[in-house]
Amino acid sequence: MHQTSPADLFEATATIYRAAELRYFLIAGETSWLESLRIIDSRQRSWANRELTLYALGASHAVSIRHRDLRVTELLSCRDTFRKNQCLAEMAAADPFDLTTVVGDMRYRFRLTLHTLQGEDALLGHYPDEDQMTVAYPRQREFAAPVTRIGWLIGPSVLRLETLHTYPEEGAGIRTESVIEIS
Question: Out of 22-36, 78-92, 155-169, which region has the weakest mean confidence (pLDDT)?
Answer without folding.
Answer: 78-92
